[in-house]
Amino acid sequence: MQKSELYKLMGIKLDLAVEAHEILRGEVGREIPGVKMDEERYENAVVKTITILDEQGAQIMGRAPGTYVTLESREIRDNNKMVHKQIGEILANKLKEILPLREDSTVLIVGLGNWNATPDALGPKVVELSMATRHLFHYAPEELRQGLRSVCVLAPGVLGLTGIETAEIIKGTVDRVQPDLVICIDALAAGSVERINSSLQVATTGINPGSGVGNKRIGINQETMGVPVVAIGVPTVVHAGIIAHQAMEKLFNHLQTTPALQDVYHALRPVAVNEMINDVLEPFGGQLMVTPKEIDEQISNTARIIAMALAMALHPGMPEDEVEHYLH
């Protein structure tokens, strides 16, 4: 029973490119044409870079050509500020490699999501912590902006709160401010509970806001905004159907010493499994999303890591040992 087929039947799209790559590569048993993966290991993190090189790779992976960097670390969930700073430095170095920046570039940081829903509040919390400096380049003496880059921040809310499509608000701001780059931060949906608040993805292809809570909205990318868009996403929820499927898999794997049960498992068609899971989730329209009870603290920790990394990556004169003092 192939996961990719079951997820397609359930209408689940994996937000993390590294998860999609692991599943597809495992099913075909070889490298995916048009896709390259590199891996780097650090003391408290593993960084995996998925590069979709051409349209063939894009079609197989189900996402646009570009670079998808995933930083994996279970220590993100722990309340360890020293380790969080190390993770922030790793993320900052990766951002420096990816972001198309000049010394005089203006950057717009956009915190996507609903600040009233904790699993979806990552973007607004990052914006709340981030340091806005664009006004200094208009109204402050030159000595006050030494080592800084022009940065402005925006938390546009969600359609249900504002009545305006998020992409429309951002496009209006882009047209007025004319930044050289947009960085979007959003909550994502994970393909397994292990990845919730333990992975950060940086994508050069933009983002579709609302994916972390099962919504579909207008894409925010270079095509729609007119400037490069880099997305930073963190899985904060997982579809309940995925948890149900993983539980069934573990049950059958545990009982695989009984040949009859093995035959039953392999005889199950993805359609049948999907129908059983949908029956359980029917009261929620098949769209039940699950998040940990410690989500408040985990979102705060993750937002601080991302805000630190952005400060170090965007401001060339920012002392790494003092970066925390510049967070709001």
Protein architecture, described:
- The chain is α/β, with parallel strands linked by helices.
- The chain has a single domain, classed as 3-Layer(aba) Sandwich (Rossmann fold).
- 40% of the residues lie in helices and 18% in strands.
- It is built from 13 helices and nine strands.
- It has helices at residues 3-9, 17-28, 55-61, 81-98, 122-129, 136-139, 159-162, 166-177, 222-225, 240-254, 259-267, 270-281, 295-314; strands at residues 35-41, 46-52, 66-72, 106-111, 150-154, 181-190, 199-203, 229-239, 289-290.
- Strands 1, 2, 3, 4, 5, 6, 7, 8 and 9 form a nine-stranded mixed sheet that branches.
- A hairpin with a 4-residue loop joins strand 1 and strand 2.
- Helix 4 (81-98) crosses helix 13 and helix 10 (240-254) packs across helix 12.
- The radius of gyration is 21 Å and the shape is elongated.
- The model is unreliable at 210-214 (pLDDT under 50).
Descriptors for this entry?
single chain, alpha/beta, Rossmann fold, nine-stranded mixed sheet, EC 3.4.24.78
- Provide the domain count: 1
Proportion of residues in helical segments: 40-55%
The end-to-end span amounts to 49 Å
> How many beta-strand segments?
9
Please tell me the overall pLDDT. Answer: 85
The number of helical runs is: 13
Biggest sheet character: 9 strands, mixed
SS-based structural class? Answer: alpha/beta
Poorly predicted runs are: 210-214
CATH classification class: Alpha Beta
- Rough outline: elongated
CATH-scheme architecture: 3-Layer(aba) Sandwich
Measured by DSSP, the beta-strand proportion falls in 15-25%
Helix-strand string? HHEEHEHEHHEHHEEHEHHHEH
From the alpha-carbon coordinates, what is the Rg to the nearest angstrom? 21 Å
Write the CATH homologous superfamily: HybD-like
CATH topology label? Rossmann fold
